[in-house]
Amino acid sequence: MSTAWLLLIAAGLLEVVWAIGLKYTEGFSRLVPSVITIAAMIASVWLLAMALKSIPVGTGYAVWTGIGAVGTAILGIILFNEAATAARIVCIGLIVTGIFGLKLASSSS
After folding, report:
1. For an engineered disulfide with 15, which of 1, 42, 68, 93 has Cβ 3.0 to 4.6 Å away?
2. Cα separation of 65 and 85, whole Å?
3. Which stretches within 26-107 are classed as H helix?
4. Alpha-carbon gap, residue 67 to 70, rounded angstroms
5. pLDDT at 107
């Protein structure tokens, strides 16, 4: 796996951090969670930009948001007791399948 793809995965994981962090900021009224969330936002977008030097923008953006969506949905189930219905799990699986499909179809490996 190339450095660009590793940067993209790290960017996606940081997207999960800031998306979950938004819940803990309570509307950016709590200092420490707000600082962590904003730092994760900046780092996530910066890593995405670095990855997009080598990965097509459509693929990179879709994978970045896909990692964020899947990670946030899973952590929402674990941390916030959100519904884990069969339909929701299947849809998360479809997003994961799409992420792997985009990786396989990408000209950057």
Report:
1. 68
2. 22
3. 31-51, 57-80, 86-105
4. 5
5. 62
Average pLDDT for consecutive 10-residue bins of the chain (109 residues)? Answer: 93 98 96 98 98 95 96 97 96 94 75
Asked if 2 contacts 109 with a C-beta cutoff of 8 angstroms, the reply is yes
Report CA 62 to chain centroid distance, whole Å: 10
Q: Provide the residue type at 66 as one letter.
A: G
| Cβ-based neighbours of 28, under 8 Å, separated by 6 or more | 34, 37
Per-residue confidence (pLDDT) for residue 4, from 0 to 100: 95
Q: What is the C-alpha to C-alpha distance for residues 29 and 77, in angstroms, rounded to an integer?
A: 24
> Encoding tokens for residue 42?
């900046």
pTM score above 0.70: yes
Alpha carbon separation from 50 to 55, 60, 99 (Å, rounded): 9, 10, 19
C-alpha span between 65 and 8 (Å, rounded): 10
